[in-house]
Prior knowledge:
Layout: H1 15-18, E1 30-31, E2 36-37, H2 46-51, E3 57-58, E4 63-65, E5 68-75, H3 78-82, E6 90-91, H4 98-111, E7 115-119, H5 146-151, E8 162-163, E9 168-183, E10 187-204, E11 210-217, E12 223-225, H6 228-231, E13 238-245, E14 250-253, E15 257-260, H7 261-264, E16 271-277, E17 289-300, E18 305-306, E19 309-310, E20 314-319, E21 325-326, E22 329-330, E23 334-337, E24 341-347, H8 354-365, E25 393-394, H9 401-415, E26 434-439, E27 456-461, H10 462-478, E28 487-493, E29 515-517, E30 522-524, E31 535-537, E32 545-548, E33 557-566, E34 572-581, E35 584-590, E36 593-595, E37 598-602, E38 607-616, E39 629-634, E40 643-644, E41 648-650, E42 655-662, E43 669-677, E44 682-691
Parallel strand pairs: 5-9, 7-24, 24-28, 30-34, 37-44
Antiparallel strand pairs: 1-2, 3-6, 4-5, 5-18, 8-9, 9-10, 10-11, 10-12, 11-16, 13-15, 13-17, 14-16, 17-19, 17-20, 20-23, 21-22, 25-28, 26-27, 29-31, 32-33, 33-34, 35-36, 35-38, 38-42, 39-43, 40-42, 41-42, 43-44
Amino acid sequence: xxxxxxxxxxxxxxxxxxxxxxxxxxxxxxxxxxxxxxxxxxxxxxxxxxxxxxxxxxxxxxxxxxxxxxxxxxxxxxxxxxxxxxxxxxxxxxxxxxxxxxxxxxxxxxxxxxxxxxxxxxxxxxxxxxxxxxxxxxxxxxxxxxxxxxxxxxxxxxxxxxxxxxxxxxxxxxxxxxxxxxxxxxxxxxxxxxxxxxxxxxxxxxxxxxxxxxxxxxxxxxxxxxxxxxxxxxxxxxxxxxxxxxxxxxxxxxxxxxxxxxxxxxxxxxxxxxxxxxxxxxxxxxxxxxxxxxxxxxxxxxxxxxxxxxxxxxxxxxxxxxxxxxxxxxxxxxxxxxxxxxxxxxxxxxxxxxxxxxxxxxxxxxxxxxxxxxxxxxxxxxxxxxxxxxxxxxxxxxxxxxxxxxxxxxxxxxxxxxxxxxxxxxxxxxxxxxxxxxxxxxxxxxxxxxxxxxxxxxxxxxxxxxxxxxxxxxxxxxxxxxxxxxxxxxxxxxxxxxxxxxxxxxxxxxxxxxxxxxxxxxxxxxxxxxxxxxxxxxxxxxxxxxxxxxxxxxxxxxxxxxxxxxxxxxxxxxxxxxxxxxxxxxxxxxxxxxxxxxxxxxxxxxxxxxxxxxxxxxxxxxxxxxxxxxxxxxxxxxxxxxxxxxxxxxxxxxxxxxxxxxxxxxxxxxxxxxxxxxxxxxxxxxxxxxxx
Length: 692
């Protein structure tokens, strides 16, 4: 999905908005955004207006029944009503802690599978790269085409709506009032209900700590599910709709909107309210505060006593970070929708950054197949699989020590300096045409210098690396990624979207992919082995375009190479090839002599021997770190007295040495001694034990 992100709402405050500060008599609800009073037929009685929840009270959560959110209304004699246990509102509370609110929002996003994808293609490249291409503005109606895109989503008609991205949330649902007759003893009996379908949208501003909340009834959607005697009267009954927030550090600008059910049934107006955040209430960096906002609604009319209700809270995050800037434009204050897992998205088929996307894809899925080489399993973060514990990335300030340390470590791995040598560092590359790309990004806590995570470097075309970097810089502004706070992830797709490329041409009736058969799997001690070529064919086109994601040099271990065939109509077929790169192993030695199978004489006392072997890399340089040895073992468990000591490297002989001993009780038998290495290979020697 291509999710655009938007921002500023436009300068100034309209006269209609300034009316929000004017509160007239409670018997007259002003339409603040519309700039006019409701007509006399729409006005609730003074008694009903006084019953509406005040700004300092949070209404109870509405009952969700039959696909509608329902407030409740009751009628009966005073004795019965006095015994009725009606739900009540609660006072607003202090703002929740940032850590608790952030975790709660993440849990909701994971539980509801709410993810957003900011496509790197939409930022443009070079001088055209700007967040203005993707920032929303909030005006008298919610922004398009994002609102329509959001409401078209299947999950927008869920109780919790859908978070399209950090800028926009939407919902399609029903709300109304259910009516009860209260019997003696306070027992309510259901009479019926009146409901309307509505659409709701919440848009974060980028020029203020404000979330703009929109509401619109769907004309013709009011349903009167009532007995005959009430059905005729119900269109003159009313419903008041508004938006508010649940803590004392936020407030609402704009009065609730009252209309009769008859008028709601013909209304096609977007009504809106501002949920604002008080930065002076925050003790957090960047004045971060989280708030919960909701739609509040309450019916009125007839002899029923109406109670207010609200939708479930949606968590937003507001900040006053001053470092969001692009060119001469700054975005010093903003609010965003927090209940979403935000992603930066790259495509492997993009002409602008495809090589970078392939690098990140390999780093996320096959970290053991990346440079620099380590002899322990790599852990590289930033991919979200649906697990709440999937580690994301966190942005750091460019002037921070973390940022500069990441750059130093990257350069060392790229140039085989510092902790990286000709074995572990990345092979040389042509700097005139290529950059050394790193993942996780230099701008993250999890970058190359992180003590907790591993990283990857790869040579990629210079222009693509810089295009991808430019998109990253625009993304963190567009998605409002705060320093050392917000978590984001990176999604790699195998196709283009938005402004990204496409094949073009070809036969439009050709929908059959080509055929491709990969070359045989390869095992080699060279890091640049000959992979061969796949065989291909197509039902229409005489030739197809063949590419692969094979690196310029392979790391030790087993890598999966994906070969890709594309015909002229853009149909794609793939296959995979296993490429295993091994250390050079020169066999086992004992007392300086090469041994194959070995006869070991055991006397009555425990005895021991030392087995040695030499490992070299592709350039015949010795490998000296024992960490390349993952395990050593006999093929059977011996009696007590058996030992295998830790492998050590003997600089004099240039070999690893492993000392092992067994008691006489190991018996006359042939046993296998095996050494397992981090390149995935195993090497064994058979030893025939002979008791003397």
